[in-house]
Design brief:
CATH architecture of chain A: 3-Layer(aba) Sandwich
Number of domains of chain A: 1
Largest sheet of chain A: 6 strands, mixed
Strand content of chain B: 15-25%
CATH superfamily of chain A: P-loop containing nucleotide triphosphate hydrolases
Number of helices of chain B: 14
Largest sheet of chain B: 10 strands, mixed
Structural class of chain A: alpha/beta
Order of helices and strands of chain A: EEEHEEHEHHHEHEHEE
Radius of gyration of chain A: 18 Å
Oligomer: heterodimer
Number of helices of chain A: 7
Helix content of chain A: 25-40%
CATH class of chain A: Alpha Beta
Number of domains of chain B: 2
Distance between the termini of chain A: 31 Å
């Protein structure tokens, strides 16, 4: 197996407004090693979320090559892409995006419904994921009965329950207060260091970005520079 | 039959069933989502329930009418009329013909005599109990044999008429709807006064819509000497019916038309048809409205849950799984309405009313007959509405690009 998780070659993405082509990303060349922890940074409109969507396989490039978790995504059709995502990617969103009519347990179980697993095995994995985020006692609660920090922890459990190689996070601390943001970052750190997950994070928050090992700066759709983070904050031990 | 409408949809339905069986998204998800927006859900369920109720009640009406006729006939009894008369009231039969028929060897006898009756049918206006006017009611002059042959008819109160006294008996079920024919009262007909001496029950047959009197009295009152309306005979067995009918039709002295009672009454049972057609037109109009109500609710659902759909798609659920999920949600929604409507239609079950039979131009009394089969058809109908109203919104849900869904 390749130890590169994300490999982008001359990747481009543009939108069409009528006959007008609006380039969002051009000439992106990037390699993220397996187990890497990268933060995508840049001003609004620099294309960082678009880049994240391309890496996560929920958007398609206009040009260039895209290889993620050992698969070339260029030739996959919509269903194949969906299947690929269900096996390889865990998603963490700014607004948590939990399904409101499902309780914490059921939300975490969602990605497993796409795998060929029995009920008992699903249960075991869901409970394990919930215990990693320290929410086992809240698993029967619905999202509206959870605090923002708890909701994001449920979302993190959902992102890892199917053991994906890659975790993408779009402003994961954007809606959280300082304490809960800290807690979410500790969890991501744990996923990266102890479970070896590759993490790609989009953030505005310099504090969140300081946890990543590399910061990739985008400027008007092109890679501006990649900075290695040397003095990463020392985090307390995990809750578990 | 509503079930035929499912045939062209069979591949889609099979796919939906397959999707439900191996569904990654459990139906409980849809069930809870429905109740998440309970106000919209209840109004849609209500609209579907009303349509399904109308649908079932219309069918139960038609069924009630034909049931009244089906209950009236016996396999081994034959009605004999003038050729092409179609209904007893339009028929006439001479006394000579009647005598000849009575000699037929296939006619059954009981301890009293041959089971054959010469009846006269006339009609009379009777005032409706609610004061809204009068309706034409069939009056049957019959014989003691005629009473014995119609075994579903039972005397409830009073007694049978005595020949020569201008007496009449009235069905119990007529008393709910008509006035002036109660036990002990007299009514005028053909220049005579007729006294009601008995109340009978016809067990839901057409006889529940007829006033009966003695045929001889009716003959005199209407001066129909030697000219009755029709004859009914019971044969030794139902197997004798074809050869008896052949004799009636081929004997040059008779040249009459004979029909087994079930066939005769089945023809009359078409009385429910115009009502049924009218009801179906109303149902169709209501259906269009209800389908749009369901569609509107589902479009609103899809719009309100776009980020949720985006999340599911990002997690790896495929388009077809989203399509099936929302289609099932629409079906759940309308099937709830269907169950409610089928339940509401039960309120009409057994209610007795009447309609004019377009064949005899007289009133026929019937009861709404809501059967499990009709209720199942109502629920099936609601499922069709769910498929029709839910498909486009579900299709739309499945086609939203993931990135767009996430952004909204």
């Amino acid at each position: 197996m390749d130890d590169v998780s994300v490999r982008l070659r001359n990747l481009a993405k543009s939108y069409w407004r009528g006959s007008l082509e609006i380039p969002v990303l051009t000439g992106i060349d990037l390699e993220i090693p397996r187990g890497g922890y990268y933060a995508l940074m840049g001003p609004s409109g620099s294309g960082k979320t678009t880049l994240l969507n391309l890496i996560a396989g929920i958007d398609r490039p206009s040009g260039g090559e895209l290889e993620v978790c050992g698969h070339s995504l260029n030739g996959l059709n919509d269903d194949e892409l969906a299947g690929w995502r269900s096996r390889n990617v865990g998603f963490i969103f700014q607004n948590y995006n939990l399904v409101p009519v499902l309780n914490a347990y059921e939300n975490v179980e969602l990605p497993l419904l796409l795998q060929d697993l029995g009920r008992a095995e699903r249960r075991e994995r869901v409970l394990h994921a919930l215990s990693l985020v320290n929410l086992t006692d809240r698993m029967r609660n619905y999202p509206r009965q959870l605090s923002g920090g708890q909701e994001q922890r449920v979302a993190i459990a959902r992102a890892i329950v199917h053991d994906p190689e890659l975790i993408v996070a779009d402003e994961p601390t954007g809606a959280l207060d300082a304490k809960n943001a800290e807690e979410a970052l500790i969890l991501l750190e744990h996923l990266n260091q102890e479970l070896g997950k590759t993490i790609v994070l989009v953030t505005h928050d310099p504090k969140a970005a300081s946890h990543a090992r590399f910061q990739i700066h985008l400027e008007k759709g092109v890679l501006d520079r990649t900075v290695e983070v040397h003095d990463r904050p020392v985090l307390p031990r995990l809750l578990t | 039959m509503i079930w035929y409408l499912f045939v062209p949809l069979a591949p889609y339905l099979l796919w939906l069933l397959w999707a439900a069986a191996f569904h990654p998204l459990p139906l409980t998800y849809n069930w809870r989502s429905i109740w998440q927006r309970w106000a919209g859900t209840l109004s849609t369920v209500g609209a579907i329930a009303i349509v399904v109720m109308v649908f079932v009640v219309v069918l139960s009406m038609a069924q009630g009418v034909s049931k009244a006729y089906v209950r009236s006939g016996r396999d081994d009894q034959v009605i004999i009329m003038r050729q092409n008369a179609r209904v007893e009231m339009m028929s006439s039969l001479s006394l000579a013909q009647a005598r000849l028929i009575l000699t037929h060897p296939l006619i059954a006898r009981d301890g009293v005599g041959p089971l054959a009756t010469e009846d006269i049918i006339v009609s009379k206006q009777v005032a409706l109990a609610d004061g809204s006017g009068a309706m034409s009611v069939t009056v049957r002059g019959t014989t003691p044999a005629g009473i014995r042959m119609r075994s579903q008819v039972r005397m409830l109160q009073g007694r049978w008429f005595i020949p020569g006294l201008s007496e009449a008996v009235v069905p119990q079920k007529m008393l709910n709807r008509y006035t002036g024919v109660e036990l002990g009262r007299s009514f005028a007909m053909a220049g005579r006064s007729w006294k009601v001496v008995g109340i009978f029950d016809g067990d839901g047959s057409v006889y529940d819509s007829e006033i009966w009197t003695e045929v001889g009295d009716l003959r005199q009152a209407f001066r129909r000497y030697g000219n009755d309306s029709s004859m009914a005979v019971r044969l030794r067995s139902a197997a004798d019916v074809p050869s008896f009918i052949r004799d009636m039709e081929q004997d040059v002295r008779l040249k009459l038309e004979a029909k087994p009672e079930p066939a005769y009454f089945a023809d009359l049972g078409d009385a429910g048809r115009p009502m049924q057609v009218l009801g179906q037109i109303i149902t169709l109009i209501l259906t269009v409205g209800a389908v749009f109500a369901a569609m509107n609710t589902m479009y609103a659902t899809v719009a309100g849950r776009t980020p949720e759909i985006g999340t599911l798609r990002a997690l790896g659920f495929r388009r077809r799984e989203i399509l099936a999920s929302f289609q099932w949600e629409a079906i759940l929604l309308t099937a709830l309405g269907g169950l409610a409507g089928a339940g509401l239609s039960l309120l009409f079950n057994g209610i007795r009313t009447g309609t004019v039979n377009m064949n005899t131009w007289s009133d026929v009394s019937y009861a709404f007959s809501v059967t499990p089969d009709l209720m199942a058809q109502g629920v099936g109908f609601s499922i069709l509405m769910g498929i029709a109203g839910g498909f486009l919104p579900a299709w739309r849900a499945s086609r939203i690009p993931v990135t767009e869904a996430m952004r909204s």
